[in-house]
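Database export, one record per block. Field names are fixed; values are copied verbatim from the stored entry.
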Amino acid sequence: MPRSQVDFDRYDRGMRTSLGFTMLGVLLIGAGLVWIAQGLDLAWAPRSFMSADRTWIFLGAVAALAGAVLIGWSRQRT
């Protein structure tokens, strides 16, 4: 029987890695948006030590941007 020219093991591993990076990117975006909401002291945001601290607006924006870049990078790998 002839051997397939497609390396399915490598393909499956690449897809799992891509999915993992995409999920991590979504989590980073979600966390970043919550941090921004807490930094802005929005009424619906959970109360914590981050509330009304402008530092968390910047950190949240960086985390959300990093998540978006990670999703874009993982989508280009497939």
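Remark 1: Residues 23-77 form one domain.
Remark 2: The two ends are 29 Å apart (CA to CA).
End of record.
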